[in-house]
What we know:
This protein is an all-alpha fold. It has helices at residues 3-30, 35-50, 67-89, 92-99, 101-114, 121-136, 145-176, 178-193, 209-236, 239-246, 249-260, 273-294.
Amino acid sequence: MPASLALLAFPLSAALLYAFGAMVLKRSSDLGVGVWRTTFVVNLIVAGCFSLLWLLGGPPVKIEWLWQPALIALCLFVGQLTQFVALDKGDVSVVVPVFGLKVVIVALFTPMIVGEPVPAIMGLAALLSVAGVTFLNRKDHNTAARSMATAITAGCGGAVAFALFDMLVQKWGPAWGAGRLLPCIFWMNAILSFGLVLQFRAPLSAIPAQGWKWLLGGSILLGTQSILFVSFLAIYGKATAANVIYSSRGLLSVILVWTIGHWFANAEQGLGAKVLRWRLIGALMMLAAIIIVITQK
């Protein structure tokens, strides 16, 4: 496939699958699957998907370096857990755009870590991000303010964790190779997930058949979009352009909720056109902030 066509096809497909996956997992949450069981099942399925990357090959795994994927896996685990808390407590059209803060956080903190000044334009990106979150949080009198605040806080926490994930993968990835580092990370993340079993309010066997349908569907969608995005980076590179397109997932989530949310029994359409317009503006602001950040690289 030509690189120009792949640049559009892979990241945009990943963004669309993520937006759909978030809506599907939100439906499973509404059916009572719960954060702990959702995180456990998703992490095991995604680990299985990333096992395919082992076929890419790579240098021999050094035992003394295993602490590196372990630390990255911990960041991933925290990020995924807070991500599902956000989806459980909040609306898809709010929390998915908030996850896009990851790119802004990476841009702000990476220069600090390496001792370089932060460009002034990053201040504009930060202001747009804050304004975007403010618009996303616009609500009517029927909205549970406490739940939405929890969702946005968890979403921001997930963005920080995923930002650390990205920075550490970038730092240690070249020595490992994607075919070795990424499978090790996701296998370790799956192992960490077994600690969640103690938090289950009921065993997996208690999940109703309807809940399993949405849970497995959302897990497969998340795993597939991850493989698509990472595979594009491994084959074609072009990380900056790819992240611009992939960041459209926040905007896509608002559009999907607005247009076909009823297919997923999503109640966000009932918030009214005014609230969804505010969220659309907020998502556009955050997308603009992301574009500013990654075009500076």
